[in-house]
């Protein structure tokens, strides 16, 4: 069996093999007051299931998450929250939410939005919005719960949270010191800074 290239092997270090339910590194608990303030500001009523998600998680990072609907698979990189860096409001600036009757609730790895319906006719429906098609609403689930159930994540492994020194020592112990380069050290450093404090939990249905 051929040995995987170094970069490919490093990517495999980021995840474990087991595929589980949708995981999120949440931004923190929201509040009913915060959600109601947002609804009042924009004159909208959010679906009850999505409101509960904002109260319990207030969005978060969703690395290594795949959404599968039939034969189609999409990534889910972030789910937006309120009054956080990756926020719904910031992304409403780039998304014609009034025209679409939906607000952006997340994004994939390529800048395509996920949105949720806010009108009487589409309240709670979740859409995929391809930026190459003008963020047109493409329905992927009748409910936010269905959206969560269609997504599955891979846990960030402990190896991805290892320091540069720990990774170097591991390769040297395995006789692979010739693979260590400054570029690889920089990659490890970025991964460590990104994942060292991450805590993933299941999005409860």
Radius of gyration: 19 Å
Structural class: alpha+beta
Instruction: Tell me, briefly, the overall form.
Output: elongated
For the biggest β-sheet, the strand order reads: 10-9-8-7-6-3-2-12
Query: Which sequence of SSEs, written as H and E, runs from N to C?
Result: HEEHHEEEEHHEEEEHEHHE
Number of helices: 8
Helicity level: 25-40%
> Overall mean pLDDT score?
87
> The biggest beta sheet, please?
8 strands, antiparallel
What amount of the residues lies in strands? 25-35%
Describe this structure in words.
33% of the residues lie in helices and 26% in strands. The protein contains 8 helices and 12 strands. It has an 8-stranded antiparallel sheet. Strands 1-11-4-5 form a 4-stranded antiparallel sheet. A hairpin with a 2-residue loop joins strand 4 (65-69) and strand 5 (72-75).
């Amino acid at each position: 069996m051929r040995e995987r290239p170094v970069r490919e092997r490093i990517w495999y270090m980021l995840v474990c093999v087991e595929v589980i339910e949708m995981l999120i590194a949440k931004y923190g608990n929201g509040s009913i007051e915060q959600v109601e303030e947002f609804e009042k500001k924009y004159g909208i009523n959010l679906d009850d299931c999505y409101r509960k998600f904002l109260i319990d998680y207030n969005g978060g990072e969703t690395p290594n998450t795949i959404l599968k609907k039939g034969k189609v698979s999409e990534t889910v990189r972030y789910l937006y929250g309120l009054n956080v860096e990756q926020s719904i409001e910031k992304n409403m600036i780039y998304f014609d939410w009034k025209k679409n009757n939906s607000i952006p609730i997340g994004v994939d790895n390529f800048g395509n939005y996920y949105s949720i319906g806010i009108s009487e006719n589409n309240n709670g429906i979740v859409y995929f919005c391809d930026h190459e098609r003008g963020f047109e609403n493409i329905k992927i689930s009748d409910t936010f719960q269905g959206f969560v159930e269609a997504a599955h994540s891979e846990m960030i492994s402990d190896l991805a949270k290892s320091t540069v020194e720990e990774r170097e020592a591991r390769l040297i112990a395995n006789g692979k010191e010739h693979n260590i380069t400054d570029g690889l050290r920089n990659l490890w450093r970025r991964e460590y800074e990104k994942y060292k404090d991450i805590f993933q939990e299941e999005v409860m249905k």
